[in-house]
Design a protein that fits this description.
- Strands 2-1-6-5-4-3 form a 6-stranded mixed beta sheet.
- It has one domain (8-120): Roll (Nuclear Transport Factor 2, Chain: A).
- It contains 3 helices and 6 strands; from the N terminus they run H-H-E-E-H-E-E-E-E.
- The N and C termini lie far apart (52 Å).
- It has helices spanning 8-20, 25-35, 52-66, and strands at residues 36-44, 47-50, 70-81, 84-93, 100-109, 112-120.
- Helices cover 31% and strands 43% of the residues.
- It has 126 residues and is α+β, with helices and mostly antiparallel strands.
- This is SnoaL-like domain-containing protein.
- InterPro entries: NTF2-like_dom_sf, SnoaL-like.
- Residues 18-115 form the SnoaL-like domain.
Length: 126
């Protein structure tokens, strides 16, 4: 008997919209509670973040650092199988130039994000 696959696109898009684009700390905390397991781990290029509160703090700090119009936007559909999902994204000020691009890769356990890897693309030199 096979276990049904989660909706990788929906889950990873919700993570971008409801966690990494959410400026209200209470709404962000509620989203993390719904989208992540009890003890998630996020791997960033510069370190490892453990726990829901710590992930929320990282998201809030990013939004504060880059200004009020900074947004993460999905690029294409999230894909996955066997508990691993990937979604490409780009980020920058709304209506402005793209500042950074990357992908989120997530281990999904029981329909929630257990581990999240934030992968940044090399900057494009023009």
């Amino acid at each position: 008997m096979s276990i049904p696959e989660p909706d990788y696109d929906h889950l990873l898009r919700a993570n971008l919209a409801r966690v990494f684009n959410e400026r209200d700390a209470d709404r962000r905390a509620q989203a993390i509670q719904e989208l992540f397991v009890a003890d998630p781990v996020m791997y960033e290029p510069d370190g490892v973040v453990t726990g829901r509160e710590a992930i929320s703090a990282v998201a809030g700090k990013l939004l504060d650092q880059f200004g009020p119009t900074f947004r993460f936007t999905p690029s294409g559909r999230g894909i996955g199988h066997h508990g691993l999902g990937v979604l490409r994204w780009e980020a920058g000020p709304e209506g402005g130039p793209i500042a950074v691009t990357g992908s989120d890769a997530a281990q999904i356990v029981d329909g929630r994000i257990a581990q999240l890897w934030v992968l940044l693309n090399e900057p494009v030199v023009q």
